[in-house]
Specification:
Blueprint lengths: L2 H20 L2 E6 L5 H13 L3 E4 L2 H11 L13 E5 L4 H12 L4 E7 L2 E3 L1 H8 L4 H30 L1
Antiparallel strand pairs: 1-3, 1-4, 2-3, 4-5
Length: 162
């Protein structure tokens, strides 16, 4: 193999390794059988939520995953593979599983969330969780409940006396 080609592949691995380190969630998918229009639709859905889909050779994916510290992906990264990266722990998984409901040709291989390698079943559970803003709003609602209930009780007492 020519040295220039080898150097280009080394650079690709380094770039992908950096993207793996920066991402909070990584989802590896099998896109065999999807049309170009369907892949474009998936990319558009991911991009709208701040995620990206990359299609690259499995050898480069394996080496980047190994350099990033993710073990056990060698047997999974066979056949056509793409990787969805997200800076949100749940966004990529939500979009991928939502898209897979309508397109049975999209297969989810494995995922990495917050540095932990997860199988498809675990990844599906993560995809059903609310995103960070949803969790914050749920927490605020729980924190406001006692004050709200006190206000309702005071108002009811005031209305009874009037």
């Amino acid at each position: 193999m020519k040295e220039a080609t080898l150097q280009k592949k080394v650079e690709e691995v380094e770039i992908l390794t950096k993207k793996f380190h920066d991402a909070k969630s990584i989802v590896f998918v099998d896109f065999l059988g999807l049309t170009v229009a369907e892949v474009s639709e998936l990319r558009k859905s991911l991009y709208a939520q701040g995620c990206h889909l990359y299609v690259t050779k499995n050898n480069i994916l394996r080496r980047a995953a190994k350099q990033a510290g993710y073990q056990g992906l060698d047997d999974i990264l066979v056949g056509p593979s793409a990787v969805a990266l997200s800076h949100d722990a749940t966004a990529a998984a939500k979009i991928i599983f939502s898209f897979a409901k309508n397109n049975d040709k999209l297969g989810v291989k494995v995922g990495v969330v917050e540095g932990k390698v997860m199988n498809t079943a675990d990844l599906k559970v993560v995809s059903n969780l609310p995103n960070k803003n949803g969790m914050i709003s749920m927490l605020l609602s729980v924190l406001q409940a006692p004050i709200r209930n006190l206000g309702v009780a005071i108002k009811a007492v005031a209305e009874q006396r009037a």
